[in-house]
Amino acid sequence: MKKFNRFDIFIYVLIIANIIAMILESHEFIKNKFEKSFNYFELISIIIFTLEYFYRIYISYNKSKWKGVRSYVFSFFGLVDFISILPFYIKQFVLIDGRFFRILRLFRLSRIFKLGRDSKSLKLFIKAISAVQNELKFTFFLSLLCILFSASAIYFLENEAQPEIFSSITASLWWATVSLATVGYGDVVPITTWGKIFAGFISLIGIGIVAIPTGIISASFVEEIHHFRKKR
Question: DSSP string spanning 141-198?
């Protein structure tokens, strides 16, 4: 059994409670009725998560001095721990449009990743991602290149027919991104013959663009599982 098993369980329960609170708070009638309770719960949770963050820094320092601190602070879970408490403090000290903090509150969901701190499966997944990070960087670059090429091409093909929608290459980036991602919202569509032909071609290319990183991650994850089982 781990030395801090009960403490970890308490933190995990608190994380789940925070996620449930965020979901409930999104309902206007519940928020209006229990707004003060939600605020108090948020404050108490933030204090606990902050103390936990500094406690882990302290533990890391005891193990490997400043090298251990850097290792924890810039690790995946160290960043998750930091991001999960940061929006609360930004809200207190920085005057920004309140609507911005509605978006920042979504970072509260990052607390659920802390549940996987001791998960072997999640650690294997992170290791698998790290092993193919160069390949993923290349596919990301390739995706950006394809998006830029598609936006440029559709602009020249559709600008005359739809000058308001495809007014520039920048404005065409939305269509290119949605098409290559194979989402296809249908809010912006080509109407010229060549534009439609190009759109069909790009949609087929998009399937490959999406499949490449998926295949790379899957293969790496399977390989890491294989190595893990061999070690056992």
Answer: HHHHHHHHHHHHHHHHHHTTT-TTTS-SHHHHHHHHHHHHTT----SS---SHHHHHH
What is the distance between the alpha carbons of residues 45 and 47, in angstroms, rounded to a whole number?
Answer: 5
- Asked if 184 and 213 touch (Cβ cutoff 8 Å), the reply is no
List domains and CATH numbers for the chain.
Answer: 5-117 (1.20.120.350), 133-231 (1.10.287.70)
Helices in the chain by DSSP H: which ranges? 5-25, 28-73, 76-93, 98-104, 120-131, 133-158, 169-180, 193-231
Q: Using one digit for the tens of pLDDT, what is the confidence trace for 13-53?
A: 888 888 888 888 878 889 889 989 988 998 998 899 899 89
Sequence-distant (6+) residues with CB within 8 A of 111 are: 15, 18, 19, 49, 80, 84
